[in-house]
Amino acid sequence: xxxxxxxxxxxxxxxxxxxxxxxxxxxxxxxxxxxxxxxxxxxxxxxxxxxxxxxxxxxxxxxxxxxxxxxxxxxxxxxxxxxxxxxxxxxxxxxxxxxxxxxxxxxxxxxxxxxxxxxxxxxxxxxxxxxxxxxxxxxxxxxxxxxxxxxxxxxxxxxxxxxxxxxxxxxxxxxxxxxxxxxxxxxxxxxxxxxxx
Length: 197
What we know:
There is one protein chain. The protein is mainly alpha-helical. The chain is built from seven helices and no strands. The protein has two domains: 148 residues; 34 residues. Helix 2 packs antiparallel against helix 5 and helix 5 runs antiparallel to helix 6.
């Protein structure tokens, strides 16, 4: 359930980043004050949604939820807690998610510190940051879910294991039959070396 929530949070973050970019860039250009004022709430919502997604994925690592493909590929149950948490950013998707989180937190810091700037300029800056966040979120999500059931991969693995086991059994039987044939054809052999000394 939590991995689906994390994926849903990423989709909402993507939409909020798009609103942040549109309102932040088009608002000052068209002189729409309501759009300019909407940039900061969109940014705050995006940061909360990205943080939610990161926490959901971290929970999957901490709980060894191997039904999540990313967790299954980058962690194992023998890892200590510290390494399981740090495995979150150990591969491409998690590393990109961490950078998106840092970008959204940086954007929040810019929004907090931009009080002394003219509102239109601050909105443009936050709009550009929203555009960058939108690009990263679009690249991260692209229709993929953190939660992927591993059943198709497991079925393929077990099918391959059965084929290899069958091939091994055939090879073992052929070798055994071949050795038995060699023994019967050669007959009993007397050892030329006397090891009794």
